[in-house]
Amino acid sequence: MEFDPFLLARLQFAANISFHILFPTITIGLCWVLFYFRLRYTFSGDKAWEYAYFFWVKIFALSFALGVVSGITMSFQFGTNWPGFMERAGNIAGPLLGYEVLTAFFLEASFLGIMLFGKDRVSNRTHLIATALVAVGTSFSAFWILSLNSWMQTPTGYRIEDGVFFVESWWEVIFNPSFPYRFAHMFTASLLTAAFLIMGISAWRAMRGVDGPATWKVMRTGALMAAVLAPLQVFIGDLHGLNTLEHQPAKIAAMEGIWETEKGAPLTLFGFPDEEEKTTHMAIKVPNLASLILTHEWDGEVLGLNEFEGETPPVAPVFWAFRVMVGIGMLMVLVGWWSAWRLFRNRDESRETQTWLLRALSVMTFSGWIAVLAGWYVTEIGRQPWVVDGLLRTADVVADHSSATVAGTLFGYVLLYLFLLVSYIATLRYMATKPARSLTLTPQQRAMNDAETAEGEA
Amino acid sequence: MDLGYWLPLFFAGAMGLALLIYVVLDGYDLGIGMLLPFASDDEKDVMVAAIGPFWDANETWIVLGVGILLIAFPQAHSIVLTSLYLPVTLMLMGLILRGVSFDFRVKAGDKHKAKWNRLFAFGSLVASVCQGWMLGAFVTGLTGDATSTLFAALIAVALPSLYIMLGAAWLLIKTEGELFNKAVRWGRMAVWPMGGFLLLISIATPLVSSAIADKWFTLPNAIGLMPIPITTALAYVALVWIFNSKQILHNGYGWLAFVALMVVSVLASIGLAYSLFPDIVLGQISIWEAASATESLLFTFWGAIIALPMILGYTIFIYRVFRGKATHLSYE
């Protein structure tokens, strides 16, 4: 059977970037949480915060390592899979990636060493600063890569000569129209992912009875973050959607399953989009709501897919991914409020009375991942057939490898990633359920954990 | 000043420097990875602790090197990475395996530890061999014919021997006791294949590429270039001597072995740069033909001259913070 090498190249890139994004999503948010733990410890002297820091810094390090190695793969895959992209858009993509390496990668990778092992070798203040620098580094990294991605979605500040992009204004390239929205949306998504991760694992620990005071402090931190950030994210997501409507109407049409341009367009809640017949089967629709949400007018006109003949993204994956993202987002709002209410009222720290909350939170541990992946599928598949929106087609930049080569390496990557993902989750589970004491390796940390356990028993 | 001339030159230099730093720094941690199966379980922990705080940043240098290739020379980036698709992919898988094994081996529980140790060693070996293969293919201009394939195969086995030497030398700095003595033994064994390969490559390179032969063996250049092979040979002799001198090793001067290896690496890089210049892919494209638009290079240039000294500064800071012998079991 002969596969289309173009499809295989896309699948391979999608497999890599999907695997990669899982880990930066955690680390970007989690590092600020760690900084907060460190800060709380510095000001209160409460050992529980320090314990929380050293418990979570291990998970941070593991996630970071997976992010680094899969990120190295990404840096090579621009060249191995999409050489045409770098040849045409290298003048713009190159410097943005370069600034990411120069301002972020080294900062994170270098000071992570101090975060992990430097406690006894540097002062408390230097250790705090190192944590802050790693957090700043991860956020810088997000800044540059999202700037490049946003430029590919909403290109500005360029000129084209003989098919090659040149920069007219760096300011317009970096701060292109979709960048502020995408950055805010992704940064909040990272914090939410971290919030549900720390709540989920803490809940798991509480259910297994290996919790201490730090476990509940961490859970409350996550609950507060979720209660505030989840509704904020709905608001930011709406702004982002309106921005997309302005610049990439075809993507919105695919997200909403709107086939023909119409006034007073209904909102399709569920259904099965069919690209051949250009209709959505078994659609459940709310009259006029799409127009109201998108144009803020009852009878507003919404462009349909018919306007973009030959330039439409695949409808079904975008349509479905969007619903998955929104669904999880709404669930996060509800669970966020519920957990804040349950955890802050009376500071109830008992697994007997909190059973349902703990169950819900442990189910939601990786909900951020699913929402983030779904969101990225919406925005990336929604940009097709373009690699640079409206200017450069993905099919025109693909590398010329035999489908056997790409299929073989794709198979290898997928196997490797599945193995690593299973190992990662199994390891987190193992770390979460093991009593804290036996996890520690340095005498300082052992002493600290003993103190924490003693506090827990007292 | 003609920026269109100088900027590509600056970035070619920066790329060479980043890759040289990568070879030395990640070289020692890849080397330690390959040496891991020969150590006892306790020693394995110390060996990993000796590279724990550094490996993340070490690996970032290859991202910078490839990053500069991509930023400054996008045309060459496409040629190089498309031709080297297979070794690059295998190298990445090797780097992924070893990178994550660092963390998994201590976090996944004792019953899995042996598995992650093996994967760590295996990943290090695969990555090192693939890097040698890539280097060999690159030096011969990515032609892919029989001679250059043979040459690439030669470097594919040679580069790991350099990495193992770097690893052994790093252990002289970071360890003591029985493991230190083992590192000395490993170094004494690995130094001969490394020397053999160094000689073989020096002979084979001009034979494989007539363009490189012309650059080295025409007068008066040949005389001016003599210091490079002579100093390399001296550094190599010093290396053998250091590994066999109890006096040097047991008085805390083991770090000299690492210095000697750095000298060899620096000179080999200078030799390589001279062989290739002004081409970025030998016989195919020069650094000026492959370069990005001048305004793009200039934008990155400002970032690079501000950020690079800072990076070097805090890299030195990190190495100072973690100076001295590696403490037992500090990596987790």
TrEMBL record, chain A:
This is Cytochrome bd-1 oxidase subunit I. It is a multi-pass membrane protein. InterPro entries: Cyt-d_ubiquinol_oxidase_su_1. The keyword Cell wall biogenesis/degradation does not apply. Keywords: Cell membrane, Electron transport, Heme, Iron, Membrane, Metal-binding, Transmembrane, Transmembrane helix, Transport. It comes from Alcanivorax jadensis T9. It holds the Pfam family Cyt_bd_oxida_I. It comes from the Bacteria.
TrEMBL record, chain B:
The chain crosses the membrane at residues 6-25, 79-98, 119-139, 151-173, 194-213, 225-243, 255-277, 297-322. Keywords: Cell membrane, Membrane, Transmembrane, Transmembrane helix. InterPro entries: Cyt-d_oxidase_su2. It is found in: Cell membrane. The keyword Transmembrane applies. It is a multi-pass membrane protein. Belongs to the cytochrome ubiquinol oxidase subunit 2 family. This is Cytochrome bd-I oxidase subunit II.
